[in-house]
Amino acid sequence: MTPPNICPVCGAKVPPAARACPECGADETTGWNEDRAVYDGLDLPDNEFDYDAYLKKEFGDAEELRGKPNKLLIWLLLIGLALTALIFSIVLIS
């Protein structure tokens, strides 16, 4: 079988004596099939993609994350503040 002038897979020009497409590698075994559409294997969804719903599903609600302060951070700040006050009072007494 002779190769087509234009590759049915990627649309590149195919030289007459070529055994495979120089761009995508399609050949007689893997796909000179001209009956198939160029993009028949993409399986794109027909409905519109809801990006906001995707973000909420994957990453949760951003409001929840911003609203909750980290308890460990608060405790560390309070301990640091208490130690600073203790050191400051010891320095003043001395």
Can you describe this structure in just a few lines?
By secondary structure, this protein is mainly alpha-helical. It contains three helices and no strands. It is elongated.
Helix content: 40-55%
Q: Mean of residue pLDDT? A: 79
Number of helices: 3
pLDDT < 50 runs, ≥5 residues = none
> How can the largest sheet be summarized?
none
Q: What is the number of E strands?
A: 0
From the alpha-carbon coordinates, what is the Rg to the nearest angstrom? 33 Å
Overall spatial form? elongated
Please state the structural category.
mainly alpha
Strand content: under 5%
Distance between the termini: 99 Å
What series of H and E elements makes up the topology? HHH
Task: List strands and helices in order, with pairings.
Layout: H1 51-59, H2 62-67, H3 71-93
Q: What would you note in describing this structure?
A:
The N and C termini lie far apart (99 Å). By secondary structure, the chain is mainly α. The protein has a domain at 51-93. It has helices at residues 51-59, 62-67, 71-93. The chain is elongated, with a radius of gyration of 33 Å.
Features:
single chain; 94 residues; mainly alpha
